[in-house]
């Protein structure tokens, strides 16, 4: 059975890879990862919109790949 994840008290952090012109901004909630084992991610331009939720292991793998340059810039 799935349960809803309460993000009402989540502290969101803007990704250091987001550009500074308020365009492509991604935020994540690392404190939720500590307590729930998942990492919520959202579009900072739409904070009331939906959040995608990833297992910590998948998020760690993704961010490691970004840092190492495995994704070419668009």
From TrEMBL:
Stretches assigned to the DUF397 domain: 10-67
Domain of life: Bacteria
Name of the protein this chain belongs to: DUF397 domain-containing protein
């Amino acid at each position: 059975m799935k349960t809803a994840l309460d993000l009402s008290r989540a502290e969101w952090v803007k990704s250091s890879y987001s550009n500074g012109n308020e365009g492509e901004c991604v935020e994540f909630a690392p404190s939720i990862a500590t307590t729930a084992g998942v990492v919520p991610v959202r579009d900072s331009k739409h904070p009331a919109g939906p959040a995608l939720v990833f297992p910590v292991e998948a998020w760690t793998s993704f961010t490691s790949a970004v840092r190492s340059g495995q994704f070419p810039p668009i």
